[in-house]
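Input.
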Amino acid sequence: MSRSLIIYSPAGIVAAAAPVRQAAKRLAALGFEPSVDASALTKHQRFAGDDATRLAAIHRVAQASPAVALATRGGYGLMRLLDSIDFKLLARSVDNGTGWVGYSDVTALQLAALAHKATGPAKPGEGVSAGFWAGPMACDDFGRKDIPGGGDDVTQDCFVEAMTGELEAVGFRTETGFDGLDVVGRLWGGNLAITQAMLGTPHFPNIRNGVLFLEDVNEHPYRIERALLQMHQAGVLERQKAIVLGAFTEYRRSPLDRGYTLKTVISYLRSLTSVPILTGLPFGHVPVKLSLPIGRQVNLVVQGRDAFVMW
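Output.
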């Protein structure tokens, strides 16, 4: 199968064409055969086309079954489409070898795919590049004109290894206190606000004994705590083997915080559950982000402060 790659827009509007062109150029240099979906630059209000246009784009990409389906960006819009997406069509594209990649708002598509069992090959080691991946997107990670190569080298190298089936594990530094942790579970998660918003809908996956990873942007720590508390009170956190937190960025502190920080939020959550809550995952609205296989069975191991996620 060729390393064909389609850049498409399932959510927010793409403000300018230049980053998409830059991304296609960079991805070609990395060995892919990129093309841009016909409606990728369509504009409707804050969306990359109206709902019907974006839904058609997702189905068009699924029918084409490229090696990689790469979202231009997130923003907002996929929640509007979940009741209409043909998840059987997406599952067939995964069976044909397509890797669907993105993060942020794309979390909605990824979690709904888990809920509707469009998860791809079940046998470990087979079709490892196919399925749903939390990973980079075209505009910010491959199409930035202010960064040589269009984005971060580590992010791009990890993506290439993931999409060619070479990536078998990722590692990161976490806090002390988890040395010796060794759990096996299904990897799932993504953007916290999207994950919370899907709770209680038919598109929310009922993952038990999983490894849940989360990130977010522009959310004050109290909003992060509120979302995590809802998931805790709904029983979601307690059903996991481990929770791994990525980057929570770009929020404004308030004079009313008076020592209330993201660290105190995490400490409070740890007091409520016995499930290990790790920090330090390089993932989120940050330049350096790993590529993570949504829905795959993984082994999370911690040695000292070094954490490894293997599949």
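The domain at 4-163 is CATH 3.40.50.10740 (Rossmann fold).
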